Amino acid sequence: MKIDRWSAATVGLVLAVSVLTGGIASRSVFATSADTLASPESFSAITDQDARSAAYFTELGKVLTNPRCTNCHPATDRPRQGDEARLHQTPVFRGADGMGLPAMRCSTCHRDANFDPADVPGHAGWHLAPAEMAWEGRSVSEICAQIKDPERNGGRSVQDLIAHIGDDTLVGWAWAPGKGRTPAPGTQKQAKALVQAWADSGAACP
Fold first, then answer.
1. 22-31 per-position pLDDT tens digit
2. Residues 72 and 123: beta-carbon distance below 8 Å
């Protein structure tokens, strides 16, 4: 009987916590593994629009905080590389246009496509994100506030972000990064669907 009473009390406590943290609990129900993305439809049970919108962005945050993104959105003028997000070797710097210094341009090594024999990633126009778009080390909530701010997102509207994340081929490189690098979670199409759902639901932040 003592065990039964303890169990009942435990269940009651769990239910109380679930009620008090409904938004968090709702989002956790739809959690997916680190290398996949949930579809917008997966969040339909979250009836509060702001909570559902924030949940969309939380899921998208798995992409935005992945090394495939943060390595080129670094907190300093030094890019990072690899799944370990180690400082880029050889030492290179952002430069005025994000494509490196005059003495060491990104295009010196990074050509129009991945060069797997040397483990060198590549894509046309390889460059770092502008300094105002740096979000390495920031929380998903902080990135959300930043990415909605035209002064810190390259002058884009929320609607512009749908095409930027969903259609830009350099962004799309994150899902086909070549030998020795783990792709970003899910697919670019799935990420676009999450951005679209987030924008359509009011672009609330977690």
1. 444 344 445 5
2. no
